[in-house]
Amino acid sequence: DAGVIQSPRHEVTEMGQEVTLRCKPISGHNSLFWYRQTMMRGLELLIYFNNNVPIDDSGMPEDRFSAKMPNASFSTLKIQPSEPRDSAVYFCASSLNNNEQFFGPGTRLTVL
Amino acid sequence: AQSVAQPEDQVNVAEGNPLTVKCTYSVSGNPYLFWYVQYPNRGLQFLLKYITGDNLVKGSYGFEAEFNKSQTSFHLKKPSALVSDSALYFCAVRVSNDYKLSFGAGTTVTVRA
Questions:
Q1: Which band of pLDDT confidence, cut at 50, 70 and 90, is reported for residue A80?
Q2: Most B CBs within 10 Å: which of A48, A58, A101, as the mutation test of the B interface?
Q3: Closest by CA position to A6, among listed A32, A31, A41, A30
Q4: A90 contacts in B (CB within 8 Å)?
Q5: Whole-angstrom Cα distance, residue B9 to residue A108?
Q6: How far apart are CA A111 and CA A96, in angstroms?
Q7: CA A87 and chain centroid, separation
Q8: Which of A27, A112, B21, B61 could form a disulfide with B76 if both were Cys (CB 3.0 to 4.6 A apart)?
Q9: Average pLDDT over residues B47-71
Q10: Residues whose CB falls within 8 Å of the CB of residue B35, separated by 6 or more in sequence, listed in order
Q11: How many angstroms separate the CA of residue A10 from the nearest CA in chain B?
Q12: Shortest Cα distance from A43 to chain B (angstroms)?
């Protein structure tokens, strides 16, 4: 199994630009999570999907952030417009029936 | 509410010595406890979990953890540390009927040769 796949691995953009992060969960997993990791705030849960349906988006910081899961094998996290304070590492994780979560390698986002 | 505390930001040990990374938790309900390891520029990697049963849980790479309900602790241990164990370790907790994992702040382990 290839594990959770995320792309891109690194993204550098300018303030105001749209950023789209992509995630392919492990095949057969029915739960998907987006996290953000920063030195100051540690790991924060942004949004949780179960069976492709958003269940909890209370961690999404602002309306600039949106996430979709059009099918069981793909999810996106979009930031529009991006700001320097969005710079962080964004992780996608998946699990089966809320067992242990398996994390992707992350996307390191830098907003200039 | 649920929370995890990792009281040590850093742990330094010599190779071959025992390694312990401390974790205490607070939940309302039955805890599900997890340990993850993060190597530089990588995602979190699952090490082990406690759901129920034997309080001593064995996981990947020779790690084990002991669930102590009275002390609300779930310390990670390895009898003989390797230089390659140097990484950032996270403890996490959730209640049995919930999906939301609460992570500790992480403990940086450095194993010197």
A1: very high
A2: A101
A3: A32
A4: none
A5: 23
A6: 33
A7: 13
A8: B21
A9: 94
A10: B21, B23, B47, B48, B49, B59, B63, B65, B74, B76, B89, B90, B91, B92
A11: 11
A12: 7
